[in-house]
Amino acid sequence: MKRFTHEVLTAWAAMPMFEDAARVAEALVAAVPFGSFEVRWLHRGESIQIEVKEIGQEQASPIDAPAWGVTYGGTDRTRWARLDLPGGVGSEEATVEPGVGPGWLGFLADASDLLAGTLNPDMVPAIIAQIVVPRLASWCAVYTAEHRGGPLHLAYLWHADESRTDALRDALADLVLPDGDDPADLSVNGWQAHAFPLTARGRRLGVMCLGRPDRFPDETMQLAEDLTRRAALAVDNARLYAQQAAANLALQRSLLPPEEPSVPGLDSAVIYEPAGETNEVGGDFYDLFPVAEGIWRFAIGDVCGTGPEAAAVTGLARHTLRLLAREGYGVAAVVGRLNQAILEEGDRARFLTLLHGEIVVAHGGLDLRLVSAGHPEALRLRPSGVVETVATPQSLLGVFPEVRFEAEEVRLGPGDVLLGVTDGVTERRSGSRLLDDDGGLAKLLAECVDLSARAVAERIRRAVEDFAPEPSADDLAILVLRAP
């Protein structure tokens, strides 16, 4: 009941009344003796009214009227009856007639807060309609275009009386919307209706249509025009955000393998999760690709920072690793040339940590050659449960031009597991503690004996998620190689 009351009062910009409204609503519902009931909130201009209708409890009407009841106010009791107006339109719930005053300034401020509370372009039309009804009109229809300059379509429709929504939708089916930049009158089955163009930054984004059974006062029109400008900016901001998020998602996907490869004679798994908002490109990356028959290369890296600059270095690293590996360069030589390529980027360069290796599928296991350039330690898990570090840490990339890298040989026997992660795992923070304090990652890996590569990766991911209650602020990448 509280949630329903909260949603209604939010839509009506009347949240200061929430505690009193919730208390009254709960008292009325508690008074229902048994059976089903229906709850309705009504806006009565200067007041709001809640009705609790007991369903299925028949009572003969003492008067000849379609609606009647008893109202109590203090020690007074009032009997009332309501008659429908002629003409077939039926009665409407009263709408507020705006006037000059601080209440309406508060309404516009609350409306602005609600519109700014989402960047989902599909949610903005719904918020617009629920702000308008019933404060300014009996119904609201919001039309938008999927593409700039494209045809308008009905994005959201809201009526104060939900039972009339379908009939209103049918009435609007053949509506011809005006294409001007000023508010215009509409003809909708006897309704007094107006169209308000949604225009922001010189672009027409849609139309907001309002309807009510009586004439729109001048004050209502002025308030609707003010609200329309705010709504149009909210629509435009949400679309720009969605477009940027889609573009960055496409960029992020282009920096990762299109699909997780299947390596004959190797059980492998990767997990990648970018942190932060959807409009940021993460700095972590991974790769696993063939270079010759029975020979594969892998990489897991972390570029300092996020955004386009980090994406540029990520793209440079991934393509350099693949190109030079297929040209026959060894692991150490590839890392050295990548270091030079990053330094040549000048001011655009970003530091990069990298674990790069070559996998040779051999009889009875896997032979690896590894270079760990400033990257979190790679760990090997034995079938006995023993965990040990492999690959001595060397300089990170993009710092020293004269550094020389040396590859180290590592053997993975049957059942051995190699784990590589980015610092989104090792530096996951909970208060003053990090996940890898006191060898925390090695302890987690020791619990993964006899698990598949996918199961090991998922175990580590869940441990990172459960380590702290708040979402991670860093990207995460996990690479697991297991010798069958």
List the topology elements.
Elements: H1 2-11, H2 18-30, E1 37-43, E2 48-54, E3 67-73, E4 76-82, H3 102-116, H4 124-132, E5 139-145, E6 152-159, H5 165-172, E7 184-188, E8 191-200, E9 203-212, H6 218-254, E10 267-273, E11 284-292, E12 295-303, H7 308-326, H8 331-343, E13 352-362, E14 365-373, E15 378-381, E16 387-390, E17 393-394, E18 408-412, E19 417-421, H9 423-426, E20 429-430, E21 433-434, H10 440-446, H11 453-467, E22 476-482
Parallel strand pairs: 14-17
Antiparallel strand pairs: 1-2, 3-4, 5-6, 5-9, 7-8, 8-9, 10-22, 11-12, 12-13, 13-14, 14-18, 15-16, 15-19, 19-22, 20-21
Characterise this structure.
This is PPM-type phosphatase domain-containing protein. It holds the Pfam family GAF. One of its GO terms (molecular function) is phosphatase activity. By secondary structure, the chain is of the alpha+beta class. It has eleven helices and 22 strands. Strands 11, 12, 13, 14, 17 and 18 form a six-stranded mixed β-sheet that branches. Helix 1 (2-11) crosses helix 2, helix 3 (102-116) packs parallel to helix 6 and helix 4 runs antiparallel to helix 6 (218-254). The two termini are 57 Å apart. Residues 85-102 have low confidence and may be disordered.
